[in-house]
């Protein structure tokens, strides 16, 4: 579990995050949503240590991330996997070399042990026999799966995903969502996903945080979001025809079950 207490972050005179308190649950897909400028990207970067907040605390289970020394943070980062928005694969490395990179950086395993782990991870994201291909030789969806394999190759306790479906078609996005959801559940990972994809919200949103102007405006599940009476949240999400249809369908189902 990741716990955030009273977090503030500013850039100059502009306050981007204001009194953010929330929890990201273990074994769940925790989604951060919000419009552009809501602070969700800055919040994610604070969580992984790319930005330093002026006030507040971040706890990784019982560890206070905001007070850790540099060596302590380095040790914790070995428990953190990161799936970047643009995949961030090394173009000059093969799929196998990309996934093996964290093992080379953070472990003392033998080369045979590393390759065994790489193959296990590639198999888990349904990418057998892609080891010797380069990023330029595979599709965008395959690149995301390689990036996901790299993110989980160290068996992380915490997984962060920044817009994992960016640039993907709807069908491929569903494949990525299912992989993230299955891996989160299977390995009991605390997964935090920054997304604008409303299909993801409905399909894998175990715990959803809606940010509005740098402050947590609403929190709940994908079921809760349909019946929310929060005006700001409704204005944000129901611009999507998918969610409007989903709301109507679930309301009909709820009336039938009464």
Characterization of this structure:
- The chain has 258 residues and is of the alpha/beta class.
- It contains ten helices and ten strands.
- The protein starts with a strand and ends with a helix.
- Helix 3 packs parallel to helix 5 and helix 5 runs parallel beside helix 6.
- Strand 7 (158-162), helix 6 (170-187) and strand 8 (190-194) form a beta-alpha-beta unit.
- It is globular and about 55 Å long.
- The longest helix is centred in the last third of the chain and has 18 residues, at 170-187.
- It has a six-stranded mixed beta sheet. A four-stranded antiparallel beta sheet has the order 2-1-4-5, covered by helices on one side.
- 42% of the residues lie in helices and 23% in strands.
- The protein has helices at 40-47, 70-77, 95-106, 111-124, 140-152, 170-187, 198-204, 222-226, 231-237, 241-257; strands at residues 2-11, 14-24, 29-33, 55-60, 63-64, 80-83, 158-162, 190-194, 207-212, 215-220.
């Amino acid at each position: 579990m990741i716990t955030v207490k009273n977090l503030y972050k500013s850039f100059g005179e502009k306050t981007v995050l204001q009194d953010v308190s929330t929890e990201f649950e273990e074994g769940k897909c925790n989604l951060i949503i919000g419009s552009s400028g809501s602070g969700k990207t800055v919040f994610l970067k604070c969580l992984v240590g790319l930005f330093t907040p002026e006030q507040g605390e971040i706890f990784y289970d019982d560890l206070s991330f905001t007070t850790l020394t540099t060596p302590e943070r380095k040790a914790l980062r070995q428990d953190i996997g990161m799936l970047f928005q643009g995949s961030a694969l090394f173009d000059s490395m093969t799929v196998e070399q990309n996934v093996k990179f964290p093992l080379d950086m953070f472990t003392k395993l033998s080369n045979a042990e590393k390759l065994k782990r790489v193959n296990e991870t590639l198999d888990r994201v349904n990418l057998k026999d892609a080891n010797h291909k380069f990023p330029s030789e595979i599709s965008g969806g395959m690149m995301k799966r390689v990036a996901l394999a790299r993110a989980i190759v160290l068996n992380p306790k915490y997984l962060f995903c920044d817009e994992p479906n960016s640039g993907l078609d709807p069908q491929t996005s569903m494949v990525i969502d299912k992989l993230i959801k299955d891996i989160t559940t299977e390995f009991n990972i605390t997964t935090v996903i920054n997304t604008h994809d409303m299909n993801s919200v409905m399909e894998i949103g175990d715990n959803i945080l809606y940010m509005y102007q740098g402050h947590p405006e609403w929190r709940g599940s994908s079921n809760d979001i349909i019946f929310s009476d929060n005006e700001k949240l409704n204005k944000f999400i129901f611009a999507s025809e998918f969610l409007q249809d989903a709301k109507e369908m679930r309301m009909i189902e709820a009336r039938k079950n009464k």
